[in-house]
Amino acid sequence: MATEVKVPTLGESVTEATVGAWLKKPGDTVALDEPIASLETDKVAVDVPSPVAGVIGEHLVKEGDTVNVGAVIATVEAGGAGAAAKPAASASAQPAVSAPEPAASATPAPEAAASGSADDASSVTLSPSVRRIVLEHGLDPSSIKGTGRDGRLTKDDVMAAVAAGTAKAGEVAQAAVAPAAAAAASAPASSTGGPRGEERVKMTRLRQTVAKRLKQAQDTAAILTTFNDVDMTAVMEARSKYKDLFEKKHGVRLGFMGFFTKAVCMALRDVPAVNGQIDGDEIIYHDYADISVAVSAPNGLVVPVIRNAEAMSVAEIEKTIGDFGKRAKEGALTMDDMKGGTFTISNGGVFGSLMSTPIINPPQSGVLGLHRIEERPVVRDGQIVIRPMMYLALSYDHRLIDGREAVTFLVAVKNAIKDPTRLLIDL
Hints:
Helices cover 35% and strands 23% of the residues. The protein has 427 residues and is α+β, with helices and mostly antiparallel strands. It folds into 3 domains: 1-90, CATH 2.40.50.100; 101-185, no CATH class; 207-425, Chloramphenicol acetyltransferase-like domain (Chloramphenicol Acetyltransferase, 2-Layer Sandwich), CATH 3.30.559. Strands 9, 12, 15, 16, 17, 18 and 19 form a 7-stranded mixed β-sheet that branches. A 4-stranded antiparallel β-sheet has the order 1-8-6-3. Strand 4 and strand 5 form a beta hairpin. Helix 8 (257-270) crosses helix 9 (314-330). The radius of gyration is 26 Å and the shape is globular. It starts with a strand and ends with a helix.
């Protein structure tokens, strides 16, 4: 008997999602609660579990389709007998998942080789973006260790393996790339004689939402950015001196985000307007600091929230951020992780950014942009010296926050980082 697979509840106010990837294809066996599809919502990816153990019947929607909560997207034939019978019946139609042919069998046609590549890829559960990278580089996905949920490969896993040269070449992957290469070769040549190609890819729901919200912020808020720079010498020395003891005691690395988050919380207490938001003709002031932190995920940047960061120690903040980063990579962040937030910290420095003007995350009124640390000549006590400097950028909604308040906030953060003892004695 076929059991319907429905789109689960996705979170408060979320009514629809996009089918990001099918993790199981028709004829595959599946266990109870095993993920069979990945859905993309406005903020996170959500796995759809199988309601029963059995065999996937049919996909009722395609990758890229928009589906509503409660919609039927697939069927599962329940029961062990069906699980055994169905793959056997489809074995001739799907040679890539059947037993290997004897060595004396004829060489498969190019079409069969390409089909085999796709089946090999699905056997290790590749998302479309990861599959594309695997095929582009002609890799054997089974030779790469996955760090995502249930051992799945992420884009970071594949790119790290490519950079390290540890991934093995895959014959079937190369065969699948061959038709694309041939097509590229037959494309019109440019004036320089080389092939020219282009690829059209549908925007993910996450990217569409990011685009809409950022444009909304620019259309609604009066965004202004104020800059300053900070000498990172003291924080870097403290980190270098205590990082081993810190990791041994707390089980997490001591980074710069813990220092900056504590400094931001202190500054928000002193300048509450930066921690506020506009709601109609009213201003909401928060007596707590829920800090949104931008972390990298396979499908782009996501912004989970450190709740009540003002009451947390540096170690607790670092543990929370580390957990966010791990779960973002695995695609395991939830809608609740993203809710709320009164202020955002975005660290573009990890990607090498020297300076930027970050855009606020509505309905928040401020975002602090961190950048790369770079040795520069500065004047200290009348002498030119070399110091590790970082540019800080505070973007804020000028409708609520005046320039004086913005500069006061930014200087408070700068002073706390320049002299981290202030974080200990609450100055």
